[in-house]
Design a protein that fits this description.
The chain contains 4 helices and 9 strands, in the order βββββββαβαβαα. The strands form 3 sheets. It has a 4-stranded mixed β-sheet, with no helix packed on it. The protein has a 3-stranded parallel β-sheet with strand order 7-8-9, covered by helices on one side. By secondary structure, it is of the alpha/beta class. Strand 7, helix 1 and strand 8 (about 135-140) form a beta-alpha-beta unit.
Length: about 230
């Protein structure tokens, strides 16, 4: 009597949210996820496994990982939970933030020139290498660019920051072959038309003439080798 029933577990609840990039589902369709009702009889349930702090059901809490496990968690406040029980019931729940030893900087998604300007504008205090923040550069480009990493490193120069990642997305249409070309069948398209459509799916605009010429040169070599 007057004692709280506290449950603890390492589990993935069906209502839980995954942390972007730092964890993945082991089975498709959340087949290994448990229902939150499993812990309905407990006064408090403390769970581990999911990295984000969250409460998927009343009285059920993930405190989350105390340290960031991916760059996507740069703006996430990591924490531990302190709970107080009185008379066998939860009286208080306090979220205690975990200090971050190393900061993470994620630049807003932009074009390469804008990203380089943002890097050059970084004003960071000098510190030992092990304390320097990690930097993620996120690019949105109309087409592939040459020497991206080299240009990013040149912009960083001797700034007290560590380049952790460059992520690149492209401004393509995202359409599949069946979505464009007036719903034409694949066997009605020439190989060069298929190449153009695939390029437009990922990148903005038409492929340059030199790129099309290179594709057609490869195509001819393939045809010759198959004869």
């Amino acid at each position: 009597p007057d004692q709280a029933l506290i449950a603890m577990g390492h589990a993935y609840l069906a209502a839980g949210q995954l942390s972007e990039l730092s964890e993945r589902r082991v089975l498709g369709g959340n087949q290994h996820a448990l229902p939150a009702e499993l812990f309905a009889a407990a006064d408090y349930t403390a769970l581990g496994h999911l990295h984000l702090a969250q409460s998927p059901a009343e009285g059920v809490h993930y405190s989350g990982s105390p340290l960031p496990l991916s760059l996507a968690e740069a703006n996430y406040n990591h924490q531990v939970l302190e709970v107080t029980f009185e008379g066998g019931k939860l009286a208080r729940l306090e979220r205690i933030p975990v200090p971050r030893a190393v900061e993470m900087i994620r630049l807003p998604q932009s074009g390469l020139d804008e990203a380089l300007q943002a890097i050059e504008a970084l004003d960071l205090p000098a510190c030992p290498q092990e304390a320097q923040p990690f930097l993620e550069v996120r690019l949105l480009l109309p087409k592939p660019e040459a020497r991206i990493r080299e240009r990013v490193l040149a912009a960083i120069g001797d700034k007290p920051v560590r380049l952790a990642r460059i992520t690149t997305s492209y401004q393509g249409s995202g359409q599949g072959l069946a979505d464009g070309a007036g719903q034409r069948r694949l066997d009605e398209l020439s190989p060069t038309e298929v190449f153009r459509l695939c390029y437009q799916r990922q990148f903005d605009g038409e492929p340059e003439a030199e790129l099309v010429a290179s594709f057609e040169e490869i195509l001819e070599k393939v045809k010759e080798s198959s004869q």
